[in-house]
Amino acid sequence: MRKVRWGVLGVARIAVNRVIPAMQAGEWTEVVGIASRDRARAEELAKQARIPKAYGSYEEMLADPEIDAVYNPLPNHLHVPWSVRAAEAGKHVLCEKPIAMNVAEALQLIAARDRTGVVIGEAFMVQVHPQWLRIVELVRSGRIGKLRSAVGTFSYFKLEADNIRNVREYGGGGLMDIGCYPIKTSRMVFGEEPARVSAAIVRDPRFGDIDMLTSAILEYPSGHCIFTCSTQIALQQSMRFYGTDGRIETELPFNARTGGVSRIRIDDGRDLESGGAMMEEFPPCDQYTLQGDAFSRAIREGGAPPVPLEDAVRNMAVIDAVFRSGETGRWEEPAAVLRAAGAAA
User: Fold this and answer.
1) Cα three-residue angle 263-318-240, rounded to 5 degrees
2) Total-model pTM
3) CA–CA separation, 216 vs 200, rounded Å?
């Protein structure tokens, strides 16, 4: 088996601190290049991370025939433009979430994939983590009866004006950055698409009216997901699933411990003191390593990446519908967003 040779677009913190070290530990992956518009910065990080090649521009890396695939952790507004350019250069692309600024833009990636024949997918690492695979398995098996409700929160406090999460034209704000996680995981666990959504959004005029607090209801055929995300409340993340015969919750749903065990709690609901609760533990793993290997195997062996573009577009449609509902004050349908963009609902 020949490892997939990866190049990284930019020097984003998530790439340098989390994804690159994880992918370097993979069985199917090796990071061989990193590009920055500042060559000195690229060379510094290449030396720090023991990456063989540094490039002074993104174009230079895309022109290198020794790069098989590209990881794109650039700011949200650059996801589609540079992913398309990478695909047109013959590179497979793993692009950070959210895949695009909106559904119409995300559809450009499907067109680029179909035109070039490369593999393109969204970097939602939760898709491959064992705790989430187990939650899906437990719900499908009827362990908590019929799933009726999911409740989630994801937040942090950040007021730096120059942080990309606080720049609206870069795709900043809570819904794009972290609200996409309860949307994605509730879709995974319900195994359905929400028929309609309703949302309340508080915007911050100091940062171009980014959404600093968003709460939404996603109405699935089988039940509801209710979540809140914010860039201006205390650090928190949770995800709970309630069925007719019990509930499941994760200890750390989105940023699972890399060097420690992960845990989920399963409670049969027999009393309010958790008398029927039990814990399941999962050995230490790195979800970014698992993601990189799964994507690289799709390149080498064929088949779909962990999160194919069709799934990414559907997640984007829910995000778009939540934004639309926050503006109109009405229930909005993700399927209508897809139809308006010319996609199959």
Assistant:
1) 25
2) 0.96
3) 6
- Which residues, including other chains, have CB under 8 Å from residue 44's CB and lie 6 or more apart? none
CA separation for the pair 319, 222 (Å, rounded): 20
CA dihedral 276, 282, 286, 292 (to 10 degrees): -100
Angle between helices 103-116 and 309-328 (to 10 degrees): 170
pLDDT digits (tens, 9 = 90+) for 70-96: 999 999 999 999 999 999 999 999 999
Residue 49 bridge partners (DSSP): none
Distances from the Cα of 59 to the Cα of 37, 43, 70, angstroms = 10, 16, 12
Buried b (16+ CB within 10 A) or exposed e, 160-173: eeeebbbbbebbbb
DSSP codes, 233-252: EEEEEEEEEEETTEEEEESS
What does the mean pLDDT of the chain come to?
96
Report the alpha-carbon distance of residue 87 to residue 268 in Å, rounded.
Answer: 48
CA gap 100, 75 in Å, rounded: 10
Q: Pick the closest to residue 137 from 280, 315, 278 (CA basis).
A: 280
Please list, in sequence order, all residues whose beta carbon lies within 8 angstroms of the beta carbon of residue 9, skipping any fewer than 6 positions away.
35, 58, 61, 70, 71, 72, 73, 74, 82, 86
Write out pLDDT tens, residues 4-15: 999 999 988 888
What are 55's two structure tokens?
A: 């490039």
Q: Is the pLDDT of residue 151 over 80?
A: yes
Task: Report the share of the chain in percent with pLDDT over 90.
Answer: 92
Give me the mean pLDDT over the 233-257 stretch.
97
Backbone phi and psi for residue 143, each to the nearest 5 degrees, phi listed first: -60, -35
Q: What is the mean pLDDT of residues 286-294?
A: 97
